[in-house]
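Response to reviewer comment R2.3. The reviewers asked that we include at least one raw input/output pair. We reproduce the pair for Peptidase here without editing.
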Amino acid sequence: MKTYPIGTPGTPWGEAERAEWRALQRRQRSYEADVLIVIERLRSRFDVQKYGELNYGDERYPLMAIRSRDWRDELPVVLVTGGVHGYETSGVHGALQFVEQHAADYAGRVNLLVSPCVSPWAFERIHRWNANAVDPNRSFRQNSPAEESAALLQLMAPVRERVLLHIDLHETTDTDETEFRPALAARDGQPFEPCGIPDGFYLVDDSESPQPGFQQAVIEAVEKVTHIAPADDNGEIIGSPVVAKGVIQYPLTELGLCAGITSARYKTTTEVYPDSPNATPEQCNAAQVAAVCAAMDYALAHR
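Raw output as returned:
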């Protein structure tokens, strides 16, 4: 099997290997053009908050959140996050598209908080990790090694107990198998074990507090937009048992995943498959939007 080009097989990376990896990363798109300009356009209808700033070398990335203008303490909080993994494009564009097209429908019913691009350095480089080769989506814990994760945790601290719903928008891509999982194995000095990529949309529920009715409501809405990933021959998706159509479970908080950062009754991580021959970028964005709307509708109806 081909080995990853950085590091020595079986030996975890040190700073030299991380620096070598970082030097290979190239800016391929613009956080300012694709995200910040869209957020600026929303200022006329929503409050916009800078909740942190990343400083990587001479590059500065403001971390931005969009908030309901009619914020009222007696209303439940809904959190929508995207771009925790910067390469997962529809999570970012889907979150922004939801705000532009549908957020106003929930005015006066919820306090909406949207962080559409949690990891902007990685967004520009179409990568999973931040500049220090750290995965933000395994780093949502106290004393986080990822600044992106620590900033979001700090943003949510005052309201984390009041969150009714948190939906975290992700993708599973072919490059998970060709680049990101091999890189992870090399970084950690572990052998790479192929897992396979599911063809279709699926959800990750919280194994510590599952909400099967909620998850299925989201699946049913998304199925009108794009296809749902089937279980493999082992009854699994990416190595986890399928507990219902298009649904697997992880212990979200234990693993340091973004969807586990609040006390929300309703939590889910979406996984869109953009590399399917049966899905377009527009469908992928629309699937994320449909998931957010269905999640909000269910949560509000079953408070």
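Residues 15-301 form a domain with the Aminopeptidase fold (CATH 3.40.630.10). The CA atoms of residues 12 and 188 lie 4 Å apart. Further pairs are available on request from the corresponding author.
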